[in-house]
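Worked example

This section walks through a single chain of length 116. The input is the sequence exactly as stored; nothing has been trimmed or padded.
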Amino acid sequence: QVQLVESGGGLVQAGGSLRLSCAASGNIFSINFMGWYRQIPGKQRELVATITSGDTTNYADSVKGRFTISRDNAKNTVYLQMNSLKPEDTAVYYCNVKWGVRYNTWGKGTLVTVSS
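Given that input, the structure is written out below as tokens.
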């Protein structure tokens, strides 16, 4: 069974930084996309950033220039460095991994709260 374990969420003041990590474990292979999504209660989950196996990245317009996604293939881990955080970044952040051609796994989420 494949599991994704997220860490790094918490409470931070506006303008501060946090680094999220997501480690994949279990019988996982051929990881293609790794990414971060976020969800505010009552709203749809939205894409934050993704990175392919070839290190091609994609960002939501709202986080471009402030967030950086990266991955460590040897550790099956994806990171999200979040700088210049804003109160509107407050959400539950979910890790997502697409692997083995047809599999799609989600983490349980980590809460990020940005105070003004």
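What to look for: Residues 26 and 68 are 26 Å apart (CA to CA).
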